[in-house]
Amino acid sequence: MAGMQNSDIIIAINKNPDAPIFEVADYGIIGDLYKVIPQLIEEWDNVEAAYDVNAV
Predict the structure, then answer these.
(1) What is the pLDDT of residues 3-56, one digit of tens each?
(2) Exposed / middle / buried, residue 29 (Cβ in 10 Å: 0-12, 13-18, 19+)
């Protein structure tokens, strides 16, 4: 796939479970990009907040 030759990790998000990107991705998420990304950001923020609280 173009532009990913030097990538350490490839994460694919696609509604189509048979999308070719999943053949080269290290991690794959089947879903709508515009729904998945906000959920990932929210979880990241939750984990980050929990880490900050525990670091005190």
Answers:
(1) 777 889 999 999 999 999 999 999 999 999 999 999 999 999 999 888 776 655
(2) middle
